[in-house]
Every structure is written in structure tokens, then in C-alpha cells.
């Protein structure tokens, strides 16, 4: 009986060890939600569907601004599949929605122990109502869109079995969030083949999940220059700034969460005859200043997206 | 400048007038009351317009009649760009310029090409967004249906 108890204790210890040994939590430098959200300009009755596959390599170990060697040999990645839609309720109002399926993988290779953990399941969803008072037209070079919505915790947030995995390994956050969004587009010529898009996206996470955990509030601001080379091909180059406050458990800040990130965001888009658009985009870190003693954070990410308009 | 809402079927077509870029004649939408009007907005930088204007000219040449007419509105910021484009297409139906959006904004123009089918009473019957080769067949069928009503 005693032996069995020790075995069980040892088993539990082994399962929980990776989390204890890696107290530095992961900042994914942004959930994939906003990048996959379809905010295409719509007219009444227009319907767009997008399918986005986004990969995040999250293996950089960073102390403040400084990247340091990771002696744990840890590797971490996330792959998300997102189905998004955008529907024109009228010429000025549109509804955007997003559903996600998330896979997290974490592997630790050290001389003392090694383990590989995988979680997967439905992630959070987003619903957002957008209002566009200004459009780019042959007579106007400016477009302005404003939106508000919610992040809906319909996903899985109890992955891990007996010992639940840490919050950053869960496919869903388990708590709702409020979303504010704004976007301005400036056309440099009448044909709008060169545009500058500035956007801001804010998620306020006041609600805690069942484990009294609340993710940090997140502000993402971006600016993208987009050039259409012809009717089919366009490319974009942009900068993306993100500020995330620390996560909270029971109202207290969770150490080693939150920070600031600045990324370079290139993208390429190809339009097919049948209304299908193919988009390849990436995120390359330029600078980051992370809160706490040490954090794992995004090394790079890329996304492939297919969009179809009806 | 805030663009107007896009007009839809059953809306009254906003009135306008202008000078025909090629003949200098005064063009007034109200003068065409009693005829079916196919109103086409285009620009020299609009690539589908390279296809649509010759197709409309062919329709106009093949089926000329007092029952219907094509009226084109060029929205180039510099009207000379529109005139250069017309030299290559030899359009013989009326084309007027709208550099400031005086016509286009009331029609809620957001992208090009876009066209409106206007019935004999001045009501918008249908709006067409974009153009692909072959679309002119369906468009002329719609025109004929209105003419025969």
C-alpha cells in the first residue's frame, strides 16, 4: 500500500515538475485572434469567409530586453486554425466573427528529465460589430472603421487531466473579454493601389476564469503599407506594437507575464479569378521588453490565409 | 468627404447634368425620361473598365434604339486621363466627367466599375458591381426586358 502511495506521489511529481521547473511563464506575444479576424470592407449583403492557419514558435527566453540561453532545451509552439467571417449588415454596419482551434506543444529536454506535452481543442471566439462612417472611394482617400465586441470563452480550458496544465497551455482562456477596435486607411492615389492602414485593437480582460485567473489586458497597434502591383498581387510591410499587462490570479499579478513587443510584419496576397484570395504573412520580432525576471516569448510566427468573398 | 449610401433597386435615380466630353452636348438625366438608361461609372485606372467600355460600345452599336441609351460617367481626377482612354475605345455614347463626385457621391459609388439600370420612370431597377467579359449579355437581356415592359 505504502509503495503504491509513493509511486502515485512520484508520478504526480513527474507530471507537475515541468511546470515547477519552468516557472517562467509564456508570453505568446499575442493570441492569433486579431490577425485572423476578417475586417474586409463590406457593402450590404457582402459575405467573406477566411480560413487561417497560424504557427507561433515560442522558444526565445528573454530577460527584460535581453535574450538569454535556454539551458532547459525547451521548445514551445502553438498552431491555430481560425475560421472567420464578415457580413455586411448595411453599407456602414458589419458583423465579424471568429472561431478557433488551438494546438499547443511544449517539450523540455534537460539532463534530468524530459517531457513533451500537447494540448488541443476549441479556443476562444470573437464577435465584433463594426461601423464604417468613412470609405475610400474614387472621391475620398480616407476610410475609418470602429468596432466593439467580445471574446467568448467557448473553448477548452481544462486540458491536462489530473494535473491541469498551466494557463498558457490551455486552448481557451476560460474567461470573456471586451474588445475595442479602430482602423484608418489612407489611399495615396485615386485607384487606392497604395494604402497605409493604421489599426488599434484593445482587449480588456476583467473577468477571471474558474481558476480565478485573468489574462492581462492587451493593446495592439499596427501600421501597414500595402502596395498592389496589379489586380492579382499585392504586398505589405508593417510594424506591430503590443503591450500586455500582467496576468492576474485572485487579483494579484502573476510574475513573469506581460510586456511590450515590436514586430516587423510582412505579407503577400494573391487574388485568383474565382474570388479566392491567398495571403501569407509573418511576424519577426524587432524589440521586446518583457516584465518580470524571465519569460519565454515568440521567436517568429507565420500565417497562411484563404479568403473567399460572395 | 462622406460617401452616400449605395443606391439600390427601387430607389429614385438622383438627377444630374453635364457636358459630353466628346461632343460638347449638354447631357441631363431627366431628358431621358421615358427611355431605359444604363448608367456606367468608370475611370481610366479601373482595369475591368478596359473590358467593359468596349463591350458596352459593341452593345450600343449593335442594338442602337430610341428605347434605351448608355450614359457613362468618367470619375478620373484628371479628365484628360479619361479622354486618352476614350481615344483608344472610340465610344459613341454620351460620356460626362465627374471629377468631384457631384454625380458619384449621391449614387454611393465606392468601387469601380459600377453601373445602374434605370427604368423609363427614373427608378433604379438594378445595380451591377464589377464586370467580366460576357456580363454584357445578361445586362442587355435586362435592358430588353425593361424595354418590352
The general outline of chain A is globular
- Give the end-to-end Cα distance of chain B, rounded to a whole number of Å: 39 Å
Multimeric organization: heterodimer
Q: Please give the largest β-sheet of chain B.
A: 5 strands, mixed
Give structural notes.
The complex is a heterodimer of chains A (310) and B (149). Chain A has 310 residues and is mainly beta. Chain A has one domain (24-309): Beta Barrel (Lipocalin). Helix content of chain A is 8%, strand content 56%. Chain A has two helices and 20 strands. Chain A has a twelve-stranded antiparallel barrel with strand order 2-5-6-8-9-10-11-13-14-17-18-20. With 149 residues, chain B is α/β, with parallel strands linked by helices. Chain B has one domain (17-148): Glutaredoxin (3-Layer(aba) Sandwich). Helix content of chain B is 26%, strand content 23%. Chain B contains three helices and seven strands, in the order βββαβαβββα. Chain B has a five-stranded mixed sheet, with helices on one face. In chain B, a hairpin with a 6-residue loop joins strand 1 and strand 2 (26-28). Chain B is globular, with a radius of gyration of 14 Å. Chain A binds chain B through residues 43-44, 90-92, 133-140, 189-191, 193, 231, and chain B through 1-3, 5-6, 8, 41, 43, 45-47, 75-77, 100-101, 104-105, 108-112, 129.
Offer a quick outline of the entry:
The complex is a heterodimer of chains A (310) and B (149). Chain A is mostly beta strands.
Q: What's the topology here?
A:
The complex is a heterodimer of chains A (310) and B (149).
Chain A: H1 2-21, E1 26-27, H2 33-36, E2 47-57, E3 60-63, E4 66-68, E5 75-88, E6 93-109, E7 114-122, E8 125-134, E9 142-152, E10 177-187, E11 194-204, E12 213-214, E13 218-228, E14 233-244, E15 248-249, E16 252-253, E17 259-271, E18 276-290, E19 295-297, E20 300-309
Parallel strand pairs in A: 1-19
Antiparallel strand pairs in A: 2-5, 2-20, 3-4, 3-19, 5-6, 6-7, 6-8, 8-9, 9-10, 10-11, 11-13, 12-15, 13-14, 14-17, 15-16, 17-18, 18-20
Chain B: E1 17-19, E2 26-28, E3 36-42, H1 49-62, E4 68-74, H2 79-89, E5 95-97, E6 114-118, E7 124-129, H3 135-148
Parallel strand pairs in B: 3-4, 4-5
Antiparallel strand pairs in B: 1-2, 3-6, 6-7
